Amino acid sequence: MTERVALYLQDAHDLRDGLDYARYAEERGFEAIWQAESRLVRDAIVPMAAYAAVTEKIKIGSGVINNWTRNIGLLASTFLTLDDLAPNRIICGIGAWWDPLAKNVGIDRRKPLTAMKETVLVMRRLLAMERVTFDGEFIHVNGIELDVVHGRREPRNVPIYIGATGDQMMELTGEICDGVVLNYCVSPDYNERALELLQAGAKKAGKTLDQIDRPQLVVCSVDEDHDRAIDFARELLTQYLAQQPHIAKASNVSMEIVEKIQSILGWPATHEQIQKAKHLVPEDLIMRITASGTPAEARAKVEEYKKHGCTCPILYPVAGDVKLLIDTFAQK
Predict the structure, then answer these.
(1) Count of CA atoms in the C-beta half-sphere (13 A) of 184
(2) Together in a domain, 262 and 114
(3) At 66, is the secondary structure helix, strand, or coil?
(4) What angle do CA 268, 273, 276 make, to 5 degrees?
(5) Measured between alpha carbons, how far is 95 from 200 in angstroms, rounded to an integer?
(6) CATH of the domain at 113
(7) Do 123 and 78 touch, CB atoms closer than 8 A?
(8) Which end of the chain has the smaller Cβ count within 10 Å, N or C?
């Protein structure tokens, strides 16, 4: 039996190269391609459509879009459209976004749990082709539906996953979603607490933990040269520890390290600033919260995440030879 494995693409590669990676991952037995949407660089929807158009079987997920910048009607119709392009292959991964980016574009992320719950519940009803009236705190819709005239009118099979990090969001995910996208830049034992919270949420809805899919983003820097692989991972962590402190907190990273890096990096961080600050990220941290090193070292670390509850590693190639990473974890 083949094992589940997926590929994560962000904005580090030319989009046309991403199409090649999607096709190659499908050929080598990968289950899914997940496309990031985080900084103001590359949205997730356009690449997802492109990957879907050049593949036949592999699933395509958003990893993750936020629940603030697309109104619920547009959000649902977007995933209906993607499902038209690749029926039963689309996954909606959604997250609560993060500051300072959200704040800098005018979004007040108040009551993120309520906002997320409303989004998921209404989204699911719309994709079930229901006519929906809903008057919540964040979503107000009156008799709307996905009014398909030309095409399939049946309910769509688009599972919804939350990219959860905090305790309350993790528990909510277990209660209302098909799965969770577990975060990256955390050690494998971080998952133990996450599983407890998911189970508590699932119990509220009369489900079991086994009914909650648990793919996990894993930073994966693979090179035949161990030191070269570590250096690629170090550059990524330099940015993420400074710009997404919730990840640093989940990883139990010293706030002294975070603050030193933040004092050097601006927003957005320049290449020169990253090079200046990266020495502050110790190798033992890289080995603890990423799957980096030679192919054998990377495979061994990914196995640790799977032993701690990850059902499908979503491998994030931070640099170097992406096809080497795909070959390292190929299922056929």
Answers:
(1) 28
(2) no
(3) strand
(4) 155
(5) 20
(6) 3.20.20.30
(7) no
(8) N
309: left (phi over 0), alpha (psi -120 to 50) or beta: left
Q: Are residues 276 and 318 in the same domain?
A: no
What span, in angstroms and rounded, lies between the C-alpha atoms of 282 and 17? 31
Q: How far apart are CA 94 and CA 112, in angstroms?
A: 12
Tokens coding 69: 């910048």
Q: Which amino acid is at 289?
A: I
What's the pLDDT at 268?
Answer: 77
Q: Give CA–CA dist 181/307, Å, rounded.
A: 16
Instruction: Assess if residue 1 is contained within a domain.
Output: no
At position 173, the amino acid (one-letter code) is T
Q: Is the pLDDT of residue 267 over 80?
A: no
Nearest to 160 by CA among 128, 186, 134, 114: 128
SS3 153: coil
**Token reading at 29:** 């037995």
How crowded is residue 53: how many other Cβ atoms within 10 Å of its Cβ? 12
Query: Can you count the helices (H) and strands (E) in the chain?
Result: 14, 12
Entry pTM: 0.93
Does residue 65 sit in the same domain as residue 189?
yes
Which two three-digit tokens encode residue 87? 């029926």
Per the structure, the count of domains in the chain is 2
The pLDDT value recorded for residue 9 is: 97
- Rounded average pLDDT over 121-133: 98
